[in-house]
Design the sequence.
């Protein structure tokens, strides 16, 4: 994209953003960024980690709770894993919580976040996108954080096409990133880089939507190649996704007469690593027909129902089995007994679905 066009486009997006910026608890509004106010790198990083694969509406209350409880990176760095994992429960993708905790410790020991891309990239859980977002929004670096919204806007502006398989897909992606980066390279001198980043994100989220872009409301419509072609929805061109496979398993939820429930801490790595969960079997490719192996012996297990959950790479169906055991029964397993309300608060979403089914579901006795 030629430099004059890139500079015109970034100016148009910035103007639009100043009138239409969405309000989020992690944002500094554009009237303040124009006066030189910058967002705290800790809060930019925290919001960006939370927002990966999750909606802004879902993240907002979590962000506010984290900010109130741990207002600085030092405070978060001193928190225990139990505190952080409980506060994270329900946000999904739990490896992010582990990396968040590890990153907070490293950064607080170092006295703060580094302000350049290569150093940011070395921190746990910070990939190219998050590093660019923190560098642009918190430190004013002229780098493009290419998320799904910016990818869509950039590929439509220049109607980027190409091979969508193997190396072709990588070069297609690089061309889109170059176009987005061109907008940052030609941003007027005094303009805040973070506003351009957030302006492009907002434009993608509010106007240049995946299925029905509202081109008549778009500040860059006169320069948009995909609009001129009449088929903006065709961009970005993408490889076909392989269908998600199904996985099956079972969860065992024993209750004592006092209403406490048995929970375990999952191994630190792997699915839901480090999280508090009910006992579960390993996962297989077919559902169980009978009470599966792995249920503690000698108890009467009732099948209460089934829960479904979609992970990035597979769809999971879990049978839920419940046993009402004696007050002194320790199951012979490593774990602990907690009030079911406490378990509900500590569990990730899948654990909550399991517990709800164990409490309320109905099923045949095994
Ligand atoms: S004109 Fe339409 S397709 Fe082009 S960037 Fe704007 S909303 Fe997207």
Sequence:
């Amino acid at each position: 994209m030629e430099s004059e066009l890139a500079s015109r486009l970034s100016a148009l997006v910035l103007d639009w953003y100043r009138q239409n910026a969405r309000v989020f608890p992690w944002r500094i509004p554009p009237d303040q960024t124009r006066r030189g106010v910058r967002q705290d790198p800790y809060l930019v990083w925290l919001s960006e980690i939370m927002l990966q694969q999750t909606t802004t509406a879902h993240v907002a209350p979590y962000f506010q709770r984290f900010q109130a409880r741990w207002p600085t990176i030092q405070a978060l760095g001193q928190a225990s894993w139990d505190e952080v994992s409980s506060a994270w429960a329900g946000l999904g993708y739990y490896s992010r919580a582990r990396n968040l905790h590890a990153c907070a410790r490293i950064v607080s020991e170092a006295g703060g976040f580094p302000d350049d891309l290569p150093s940011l990239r070395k921190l746990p859980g910070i990939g190219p996108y998050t590093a660019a977002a923190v560098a642009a929004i918190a430190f004013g670096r002229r780098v493009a954080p290419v998320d799904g919204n910016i990818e869509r806007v950039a590929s439509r502006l220049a109607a980027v096409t190409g091979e969508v398989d193997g190396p072709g897909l990588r070069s297609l992606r690089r061309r889109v990133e170059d176009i987005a980066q061109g907008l940052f390279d030609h941003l007027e001198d005094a303009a805040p880089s973070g506003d351009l980043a957030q302006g492009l994100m907002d434009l993608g989220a509010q106007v240049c939507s995946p299925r029905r872009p509202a081109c008549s409301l778009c500040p860059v419509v006169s320069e948009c190649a995909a609009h001129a072609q009449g088929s903006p929805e065709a961009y970005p061109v993408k490889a076909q996704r392989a269908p998600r496979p199904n996985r099956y398993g079972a969860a065992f939820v024993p209750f004592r007469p006092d209403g406490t429930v048995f929970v375990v801490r999952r191994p630190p790595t792997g699915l839901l690593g480090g999280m508090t969960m009910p006992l579960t079997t390993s996962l297989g490719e077919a559902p169980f027909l009978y009470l599966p192996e792995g249920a503690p012996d000698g108890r009467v297990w009732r099948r209460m129902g089934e829960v479904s959950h979609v992970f990035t790479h597979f769809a999971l169906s879990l049978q839920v089995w419940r046993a009402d055991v004696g007050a002194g029964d320790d199951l012979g397993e490593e774990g602990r007994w907690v009030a079911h309300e406490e378990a509900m608060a500590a569990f990730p979403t899948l654990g909550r679905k399991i517990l709800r089914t164990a409490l309320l579901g109905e099923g045949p006795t095994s």
Observations:
- The domain at 246-360 is CATH 3.90.79.10 (Nucleoside Triphosphate Pyrophosphohydrolase).
